[in-house]
Amino acid sequence: MVNSKIIVYSSNTGFTEQYAKLLSRALDMPSYKLGSVPDCHRGAEVIYLGWLFAGMIVGYKKCAKKYSVVCAVGVGMSPPSAELAEGLRATMSIPESVPVFYLQGGFDIAKLKGPMKLIMKFKCREIAGRLNAKPELSEAEQLTLDMCHGPASAVSEASLAEIIALYR
After folding, report:
1. 5-106+153-167: which CATH number, 3.20.20.80, 3.40.920.10, 3.40.50.800, 3.40.50.360?
2. Distance CA 162, CA 103 (A)
3. Which residues of the chain have pLDDT under 70?
């Protein structure tokens, strides 16, 4: 095995990939798109990052079958919260020994195609309606609303601070 720990990700519109690249640089670990990991890493310990769809971390189960996942990270539009991370653990049946994180990523509907684009147009209207009904929005909620109306991103190395601290 070349590296005992690597970063593996699945990204739909590029924001999870941006997080993976930032984490790769910060931890000095190689990162690979799920499905493009060289065979020399078979069985490696993996920090997995995946985009969220229908409350699930896309690609996590596939990754967990091939590698030893030591950390799972879901990236979505919503503001970050510990409840979201624990909800992902429960939904995905992620073992208690595996830390789970949720990061607010970004969204650009123009990068989607077909049914996914239609689904997200509906979801964006629903999310925007819910947020517009609130008297005041947090910075993260405002960013989510911005994502509903056009391309916006929360991707930053600062968002990865807890994960970086865990693996340094």
Report:
1. 3.40.50.360
2. 11
3. 1-3
